[in-house]
Amino acid sequence: MDEVATRHIPTFFEAEQQVLQGSGNLDAIVAQLRGDKGSDLDKLRLALVEYLACDPAQAKTVLERLSEALAAAPEGEGAVGGGGGGGGAARALAALKYVKSVRMVSTMMAPMSRAPASAPSDGGWLAGLDKFAGHASELIAKATATVKTLLPSSSKLPVTRLVDAICEGKPHEVADTCLTLDPKLARGSSASSAYGAGAAASGGFRTAIVFVLGGGNYTEYQNLQDYAAKQTPPRHIIYGSTSMCTPESFCEELAELGADGP
């Protein structure tokens, strides 16, 4: 509790929620970043939320103001990259730089992800690979929109909404690119594999294994478990990932990627 009070975490949390709910104020956020309250990690997190949630047309201006504020901020505890011993501003700027590059890729990929995909030919695994590539591009393109859904309530996170769509056979723009394989049907039959959430078995799926390629987190895990428990009857969902990231380690990875980039 002492650390919560010292870092003024409630103040940063409130600012982040205002941004996510569309009522954030850039001037107030810049002033908060320049202030002496909060750790370097707290300030970086707030800057990332503001940048990812801002209007694409204002992204460049917002990024410039956030970068200037982080560069001018007094050195605090909990420096990005660990240790808290200097270089916090530089590491934070490196992390912001990498997120900027991801957002730029997302912007370029968006038109490709919206292009109509041709139906896969019978037995065409190349078509399946094309679908997978389009799926990956679409996930990247949604990176900036994802942050707007991370409200600390009963709201479903993106991964939970995707699981729900697949299990229930609901229309969903990402689920519609997923391939459903039914082992109960004869191999090679036209119904044994199909694209789209509508291919779900009659009655839906009651068990799911969700594996994230890359960093997962306990927020997604808990959100999936809460969703599963509310279903009638309850679903059984197993969650896994290549690694489990803490907020600190995630920011450290962003800083490393930004420092190694061009």
TrEMBL record:
Lineage: superkingdom: Eukaryota
Stored Pfam families: Sec1
Swiss-Prot/TrEMBL GO biological process terms: vesicle-mediated transport
Matches recorded under InterPro entries: Sec1-like, Sec1-like_dom2, Sec1-like_sf
Protein family according to the UniProt entry: Belongs to the STXBP/unc-18/SEC1 family.
Name of protein: Sec1 family domain-containing protein 1
Organism field: Bicosoecida sp. CB-2014
